[in-house]
């Protein structure tokens, strides 16, 4: 089993079709709105039907705020590495550090030659790529003159710089023996595509990369493993690839917005939840050598018991051994409308101040906060979209479409993503808290029943607020003067949702850890 421990990242792999340029940019914007990390674009300069990849990436970076971009992968023979280094660094600076670099040794050599590029053999292509990596890294380290001997890309006294805004990763699209060895020796990441390297081929390829890394004195875990995948991959398959093959970045191929939405709603959160749960379980498991060592003073995987409690930022005392901090309600209210009385919210049983928790139990509580943070992030995106409409930067219809595509619109409230993994629910389109989690909490601890009932009632209120936002967006499409009404409804959504999330974390983080309802 090989899990290199990298955080999971997700993205899209887009075709730079020139037939409808606006549609490609809109797909990248949708990628950001749905919570993906990356938009990547294939690079085939000799293809007359395609936009120039680097120009397209620049526009995408300018039209988004958090999305990271990367060529997937650069056709190096038509993009000299010295100029490419400056292009990458420039866009990284202009975008605030949101660029990574996928590189390939070249393909479709007749097309390359037709544009004036040098036609190389496969072996020469690998040698040229190795030279190019050295050139790019040297020119990203400003402060002197760069001189590099080389058969393909000699540099004779070039001034280095500018440096990128962050440490840009160089990912190689590699399949054959020498390319895999180069990846292990010199790259930051590996970026194969599933049609050319199916899951059954990954173990041998990973082993080749690891061996080359070790020979070069590198830790194989330094190399991120990304994977261009077709939409047919399931959450279970991707979780297994992460936990067994070390893959940690998945870029879904295709240009259908509905496919992207489905992947964001049904696959992406489920993969994250399954991987988090299994990593927590493994972290809590006794080491394999435990049978050969004396018994420990305490149960393996259990932190020493805490003495007393600490006040969480939400104001509710929590055991010091829990090690998970709920997000507080900051008390800020934007709307003059109040839909519930927060002073009437019930409180659950007080936790045992001396209780100890396993790593897996703590992960259960933390995962609730992580899911909530995703919803908080989506709410910030809603507010940003509304301001874009107000400023004339986006179309009201596009804003409404984007908001409707978010996971907040999928009846996947609060613990929905959490439950779908642990309860193995196939779809995220159910109200999982009301139908799966809440009944379990009631059965496990009757003292939580008033809290759970209140949370379920607040779900109904929040659903009504979402409908109000949607109706306001419909009105905005026909009359842009209605932007103030949209703002008012989004303010009300902010007040209700953020208050609800803070209350739920305050009351359920500790019970989720204690009761192990998974």
TrEMBL record:
Gene3D superfamilies: Luciferase-like domain, nmb1532 protein domain like. The keyword Oxidoreductase applies. It comes from the Bacteria. CDD domains: Hr-like (cd12108), Tetrahydromethanopterin_reductase (cd01097). Residues 283-300, 317-329 have a biased composition (Low complexity). Coiled coil: none annotated. Pfam families: Bac_luciferase (PF00296), Hemerythrin (PF01814). Residues 16-236 form the Luciferase-like domain. InterPro entries: F420-G6PD/mer (IPR050564), Hemerythrin-like (IPR012312), Luciferase-like_dom (IPR011251), Luciferase-like_sf (IPR036661). Residues 370-509 form the Hemerythrin-like domain. Keywords: Oxidoreductase. The keyword Membrane does not apply. Residues 279-331 are annotated as: Disordered. GO terms for molecular function: oxidoreductase activity, acting on paired donors, with incorporation or reduction of molecular oxygen. This is Flavin-dependent oxidoreductase, F420-dependent methylene-tetrahydromethanopterin reductase.
